[in-house]
Amino acid sequence: MGALPRILFAWELGAHFGHASKIAETARALAGRADIWVAARDPVGFRAIAPDLPVRLIAAPAAAPRPPVSAEDQAVSYPDDLRHVGWAEAAPLAALIEAWESLFELIRPEIMVAQAAPTALLAARGLDLITAMVGGGYDAPPSAAPMPPFYFWRAELHAKAAARETAVLATANGALALRGKPQLTQFSDALKADHAFLATFAEIDHYGDRSRFEPDHPPYLGQLVTLDQGAELEWRPGAARRILAYLRPGGPAFDAAAGALAALAADHDVILAAPGAQPALFERMKGTPVRLVNGPVRLDRLLPDCDLGVSHGSNGVAAAFLLSGLPQICLPTHAEQVMVARAIGEGGFGLGLVGRFGEAQVGAAIRQALGSAPLRGRVRAAAARIGASAGRSPGARIADALMAVVQGRLQAPPKR
Fold first, then answer.
1. β-sheet with 241-246: strand ranges across
2. CA 391/CA 404 separation, integer angstroms
3. pLDDT band at 71 (very low <50, low <70, confident <90, very high)
4. Selection from 236, 252, 24 nearest residue 244 by Cα
5. Is 12 helix (H, G, I), strand (E, B) or coil?
6. What is the rounded CA–CA span in Å between residue 54 and residue 65?
7. Which of 31, 158, 213, 250 can bridge 144 by disulfide, Cβ–Cβ 3.0-4.6 Å?
8. Is the peptide bond before 146 cis (omega within 30 degrees of 0)?
């Protein structure tokens, strides 16, 4: 029997468990069929989600994020956001491209699968390397020229987004010229792979009705989210209400949520998964209905008997709540989460608090969500509809497609 085909997963941007889950769920379905490499932005975070997954784990080439220096400097679109992660100047971007090229040469994969890895896709241009992209909405934006702003419902942002996209396109082409690579004609070409997999649900697509921007977009395959990893907890017997919160410590949104959850009645059971929680927070939660966990929790043990989900609105957690027919509250802290919160609100699957809010507003939202029978009905109907059309798991479907590609059963398009 010959050597197993080599598949490289590239994760370059983002620092949360959702990116690791997308790769881990696909890699699990490939286990035993491929020699799997993972170039991860956060190797520690990847292993927190997939502690025993048999992959070769290395650190991904990536620029240190540069926070916006002012409100005007805030990114308004996906191309614009890349200014803050290495795409602001041609020479540094060319160095990142070179690092990815060296990684490709060392590993020699049959296929490179990008998950939030735009520079890896840029580096693959002109190489004899099959590429694929697995994205969950935000990290697989609609292919359009120009690309839509994050807040696409605000007409005044479209011209600004287009102008900034032009500048980022010029930077990318400057970097490609330094590496002797083919130029881009439009920015969306930078994200084009030979095979694309849209791993989310239409109901929570960051861009709403994606066909407005990309009529022939890839089909929705369903969310890639890890449910069986993390601390193993059970609900307290006899709890009046069971609430699962997945929030990141730090910032006013977390403080408001933590205060509102701690103030709930003693007969409630609240599990708060808060990766990075400090000892002072554990002290603060003593004597409250909140059980604090510093890290992820096993969702599959908790979601079936849960009454309400609370999160910042990350796509993976929001999808897990939706799939379980669970009303949810979104407390977004950045643009990607605002987009998810809007989709949840527009679909009638939960409530979102955007802007400035405090403990009182979060508490009121919790009471409203717990007491709304119509909300529970809409979410359960959506979960039943999604479940009825889901078919095989998206990880298994993507894995089979990747294996078909590397084994030559699919004809890859001509290289760019």
1. 290-293, 268-273, 241-246, 308-311, 328-330, 350-352
2. 19
3. confident
4. 236
5. coil
6. 30
7. 213
8. yes
